[in-house]
Structure formats: structure tokens, C-alpha cells
Design a protein that fits this description.
By secondary structure, this protein is an alpha/beta fold. 41% of the residues lie in helices and 17% in strands. β7, α10 and β8 form a beta-alpha-beta unit. The N and C termini lie far apart (40 Å).
Length: 280
């Protein structure tokens, strides 16, 4: 079956490019930093026979508009309001939210600040717990030097190296062409400026982690067993902080949707169909 083309939806005054696939209960998948909605493509393909899967490019990323910081703050609050606005624009009264990395922090914020919109929550290697920040990100956030690195010096080779060393457990599973596609989306002046603004505005995750005690919907935390950046113990702690949350480990690094898309889709399908998630 031919899938509909992505379309633009106005959310928080920003043009957001969105793929809307399948039919059934709505599931919204939110990507993290340095990637775009296509990181969910293989997972979505496994779910569209049972669910309506919505995968947006966040403001500033992919094919969405990349407004200056004077128009969009690029912090978790701004992103979460954009997702809530997106649901309204699509006529979705209630949806399951799935968020990876920064997208996990955004999904968590929507689930606590707009609880009426969220039927269930899945956090995948979520960027919402204070932990050691990789050197590359500390460098990117440094005054002046960070702007120089992100806006001008970070080339294709450095991007590939960061992706493989910091985000993946089995780099060979993800092709260079796929990583290069993420780099190409990042490699424009507007996209680099948006990435830098996001890195700086989301550096402190303490306020996001504090939201875990306010989650009221069914929740599943999924983590890459070999995440080189956010260890599995971080995921376990997040699952303990959210009342009744389940916890599952996948044989992956920081990006299970890239390394183990089918296994991740199966875990999502079970949870979203009402199967009680395991606890650890």
C-alpha cells in the first residue's frame, strides 16, 4: 500500500513536517538530537498494521522549519508544547507517546503537563537523568568555542565517529549511508544553529527528571543494554521513579530503533496492546 506523503502542520507557530501512517489508536514517536523522524521509519513500518503512527521532525530538525531562538526557545518546554499543539493540529484527542533520547524528555514533559492527551508513555534511552555528558557535547556547549565547533568545524567524519562511538553498540548494523543522511540534514547553517541552541537549552535535565513522580499513565522504559552514554542503570532508576512502570532491556546501544528496530517494535506492540510490561 502506498503511504501518504509527509505533510506540514503548524505547531507553536512553527511549520512541522510530519509523517502520518497507518490506522488505529494513535502513537506519536519523538526523535532525539542529531537525527530526525526517519530514525523511526523501520519501527513504524512494523506497527502501522495496528496503529496510526505519527512521526514528526521536531522544530529545528529534519525537514521542519528552523526558526531563530527569538521565535523558538529549543528547550524541553518549547518542544513539549509543540508536540501538544501538533496533536491538536492533527485532531488527535489522545495518543501513546514514544520518545527516544531528548524525545524521551519531551514525551515525559507532555505526559505530565498535558496528561489528558497521553494514553501511555514509552521512554527509550531517555535523556532526562543527570549523568556524565560526553566530551563532544560538553565542547559543543562551551561559550564561543562550542558555536565554532557546531556551526563550522563538525564535519562528516566527526559526525560519523560520534554516532558510531557514542550511540551504537554494533556500528556495523547501521550503514554509513544512513548516518550520512542524518549528517546531511544537520549540515545547513539553520540546522546547525538549531542543534546548538538545543544542546545549550537542554543541558540541565534535573527539572525533567523531577517530573517522573508525576506520571500517571501506563509507562514502559526501554533501554539499550550496552548504551555507552546512558548506562542501563539509568533506565532502571527512571523506571523505579515512575509508579508502576515496566522496564525492558534490548541488545543495543543508545539507539535501539536503529540497531534493533524489529525487537523494539515488538516490545512497543505488546505494551500498546495492553500486555503488562515486565519489571526489573
Amino acid at each position: 500500500m502506498t503511504q501518504p506523503s509527509p505533510r506540514d502542520v503548524l505547531a507553536s507557530g512553527v511549520r512541522v513536517r510530519t509523517a502520518d501512517l497507518g490506522a488505529g489508536p494513535a502513537v506519536v514517536c519523538v526523535h532525539g538530537a542529531f537525527v530526525d523522524r526517519t530514525t523511526w521509519s523501520e519501527v513504524a513500518a512494523e506497527l502501522t498494521d495496528r496503529f496510526r503512527v505519527v512521526i514528526p521532525d521536531l522544530p529545528g530538525f529534519g525537514e521542519s522549519e528552523k526558526p531563530p531562538i527569538s521565535r523558538f526557545a529549543y528547550d524541553v518546554d518549547a518542544f513539549s508544547e509543540a508536540i501538544a499543539d501538533l496533536l491538536a493540529g492533527l485532531g488527535i484527542a489522545r495518543a501513546a507517546l514514544v520518545g527516544h533520547g531528548l524525545g524521551g524528555a519531551i514525551a515525559l514533559a507532555v505526559a505530565t503537563r498535558h496528561a489528558e492527551l497521553v494514553s501511555s508513555l514509552v521512554l527509550v534511552d531517555a535523556w532526562c537523568y543527570p549523568t556524565t555528558t560526553p566530551f563532544e557535547q560538553r565542547l559543543a556547549r562551551a561559550p564561543f568555542l562550542g558555536g565554532l565547533v557546531v556551526k563550522q568545524l563538525a564535519g562528516r567524519g566527526a559526525f560519523r565517529s560520534f554516532f558510531r562511538r557514542r550511540l551504537l553498540h554494533e556500528p556495523s548494523v547501521v550503514t554509513s549511508a544512513r548516518i550520512d543522511a542524518f549528517y546531511d540534514a544537520f549540515n545547513t547553517p539553520a540546522a546547525r544553529s538549531s542543534a546548538l541552541a538545543t544542546l545549550r537549552a537542554t543541558a540541565d535535565t534535573r527539572a525533567v527528571f523531577a517530573l517522573t513522580g508525576r506520571v500517571s499513565c501506563p509507562t514502559l522504559v526501554i533501554w539499550g543494554r550496552h548504551d555507552p552514554w546512558l548506562p542501563a542503570a539509568v533506565g532502571q532508576r527512571i523506571s523505579r521513579e515512575i509508579r508502576g512502570a515496566g522496564f525492558e532491556l534490548l541488545d543495543a546501544g543508545h539507539m535501539p530503533q536503529e540497531e534493533r528496530p524489529r525487537e523494539l517494535a515488538r516490545a512497543l506492540g505488546r505494551f500498546l496492546s495492553g500486555e503488562r510490561p515486565p519489571k526489573h
